[in-house]
Design a protein that fits this description.
Layout: H1 2-29, E1 46-58, E2 61-80, E3 89-101, E4 126-138, E5 142-155, H2 156-159, E6 176-187, E7 190-199, E8 205-213, E9 215-216, E10 222-235, H3 241-246, E11 262-273, E12 276-277, E13 282-293, H4 295-299, E14 323-333
Antiparallel strand pairs: 1-2, 1-14, 2-3, 3-4, 4-5, 5-6, 6-7, 7-8, 8-10, 9-10, 10-11, 11-13, 12-13, 13-14
Length: 334
């Protein structure tokens, strides 16, 4: 009797356990909470930005106050190498940038005077459109790029009226067409970038070296200190020959009276960016920086005598002074 009762009890337990086992395997086939698939990267590889700078500083020269700008840039993968074979990848980089002095206050006009020493206190606008494209290959330890950019200078600083007040003798800036060879690599936490630029229109070389590092404060906020150093070889910044003849007997951007352009260190630029991620696509980046002219740039000064009655006395000095400036950029990735 006891044996029969025991067998009946075991049979009942086995029968009761059967649905439990079946129940544990069911979710694997028909899960109540399925795992979401990995999100698809739908980026177009395009970044749009708008920004403001208290001063427009380019290659060591302060062009003026209240610079408002907008830009588009992107990267198109051409050849993707497998990481395991070390082939790297090749991409097409492109950018379009436009900026304007919102207050029509360039740094070249306030010091311009007449041939008799009277100051011409007028304000002048300056705008710049830049188009660029480059082929970049990422080798892994470093990325190398070669590209072309066209810089179109517009406004009174470009057409000459801002350079000599009312005289209109062709002073100003030419457009710039340059070829650029660049190298970018990481040295521990520091990102290093360097480029060699040759101006096809105006002649002369410009070399630069920049270093920056990113320090994360939170998931959304970072601090990015950076520093850049420039060197010119017969560098003239795109100013016309007439402009280079105007000031100090040696021109705006020249070595003495040779007028072949600056050869030497141009400026040291240091600053701190504070990028703030607003969401997964938008970033707001305030910054503060200092531009410290060096060598021949630092020593450029306005003329104290007139070499021609039609050429005004006293050219720009403020473009070549040390300056602390600031700004902000809003960028959105698509």
């Amino acid at each position: 009797m006891k044996l029969n009762a025991l067998l009946k009890t075991l049979g009942f337990l086995a029968l009761a356990a059967t649905p439990v086992v079946a129940g544990t395997s069911a979710p694997a086939k028909n899960p109540k909470n399925p795992i979401a698939p990995a999100p698809v990267n739908d980026d177009l590889g395009i970044n749009a930005s708008i920004g403001y700078d208290s001063n427009y500083v380019w290659r060591g020269i302060n062009y003026g106050q209240h610079w408002v700008r907008a830009g588009l840039n992107g990267e198109l993968l051409l050849v993707g190498g497998a990481s395991e074979d070390g082939a790297g990848s090749t991409s097409l980089l492109w950018d379009v940038n436009y900026g304007s002095l919102a207050g029509d206050q360039d740094s070249f006009s306030p010091n311009i005077g007449t041939a008799t020493g009277g100051a011409i206190k007028n304000t002048n606008s300056f705008q710049r459109l830049q188009l660029g494209a480059a082929i970049s290959h990422d080798f892994g330890p470093a990325a190398v790029s070669f590209g072309y950019s066209y810089i179109h200078n517009m406004g009174s600083l470009a057409n000459g009226s801002g350079m000599n007040g009312v005289f209109g003798q062709g002073f100003g800036m030419n457009d710039i067409q340059q070829l650029t060879l660049g190298v970018n690599t990481n040295l521990g936490p520091i990102n290093l970038a360097s480029s060699a630029n040759y101006d096809l229109v105006n002649g002369g070389w410009y070399f630069d070296l920049t270093a920056k590092s990113t320090i994360a404060v939170t998931d959304a906020i970072s601090i990015v200190p950076h520093a850049g150093l420039g060197y010119g070889l017969h560098y003239n910044a795109g100013f016309t020959q007439a402009s280079r003849n105007l000031i100090g007997g040696g021109g705006i951007v020249t070595n003495s009276a040779a007028q072949y352009g600056v050869s030497g260190w141009t400026a040291l630029n240091v600053g701190i960016d504070f990028p703030i991620k607003l969401n997964s696509r938008a970033t707001l980046t305030p910054y503060v920086a200092a531009n410290l002219p060096m060598g021949p740039i630092k020593n450029l000064a306005r003329s104290t005598t007139s070499y021609n009655a039609a050429i005004p006395v006293g050219g720009p000095a403020t473009p070549f002074h040390s300056i602390v400036y600031y700004g902000v950029t809003l960028s959105v990735r698509f």
